[in-house]
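<goal> How does this chain fold?
<sample>
Here is the protein in question

***
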Amino acid sequence: MKILHTSDWHLGHTLYGYDRHEEQAAMLRQMVEIVTAERPDLFLLCGDVYHTPQPSAAVQTMLSDTLLAIHRSSPQTVIVVTAGNHDSASRHEVFRAPWRELNVYAIGQIDRDRPETHVIDVAGKGWCVAVPFFAERNLPEGFFRRMADIVAERNSGGLPVVMSAHTTLRGSDITGHDHATDSVVGGIEAIGLEQLGDGYDYLALGHIHREQFVHTGRHKERYSGTPLPVSFDETFTHSVSLVEIDRHGDRPRVERRPVDNPRPLVTLPTDGFATWTEARQLLENFPGDIPAYIRLNVAVDDFLPLEAQAEAARIADGKQCRFCCINARRRALDRAEAKTLSVEEFQTEEPIDIARRYAQDMGIDFDEQMQEMFSTAERSVKH
């Protein structure tokens, strides 16, 4: 079975007020081109199809036109679209019946009473267990075990089994996600692999934006990542995953298909932070004929000049690039060796680590007794 695994399209996403229809349309055209060239047995879109639960009519039309184009280019391909935490489950479900006429399975929510509705036969090529985003507290006990039993009973020919899920899997690389920790990403608490059951040959994951195999030692749990960056911190390659599995029990073979972005997200300087004067010069020197979104990383001793945002916007005016924001970081004073944190980094630090940094900057010996006192106080506050 050949699978095209993608997720997290975030259609309708805007960046600092800029409409991204141009880039999203280019990405969708590339999706159709990849399907036309590869003709997969299964096209699997694992959640966060839209950026908001109430996308505009124009954004919904982008999706429906794309799924129709995929179907026309490869009629035998089974298309499975599951809802993510950004999506409206009911919006997926309401069009479930008409979509079936185009070989599209839209799965918006967990069917507690009929787990068999999540098991999709891929026309003699394999099986897909399609699971949308779920809140762990709402998951019926033994749900994944029941689905695995259904597949095992039906899969008499030993065909490959693929399962989808939209969640945070413990041990994932969360690079690029704002305000994320190892335990919570995008409001979804991390779960252990054991909670997703077994019986599959490939676990197609959505929600984490960096493409990766999760380090489970089994080489079959994978995030395809988002095909377009959603934030400036997503400085990695964006792609879709092309997966092939010969038989049930075989190791999946995976190839990446990069997705080009006609308007990339660019941070100046490309490494580290510059003074406001240096950053302003970098923006002035940025070629006027290159489409891009621009973020400036600026180190400040106190505060940015009041006119900084307006001046940056003025410099970008007339260029093809779009100025978005200034990411200001305060420099450590009188201690050149002291580490600095951006706002985003500060919000993801554990309280005790911030306390250690403060003690180091102040020349205080933050010994084991003081650390235990701090931890006791933190537990008391949380309680």
About this structure: The longest helix spans residues 21-38.
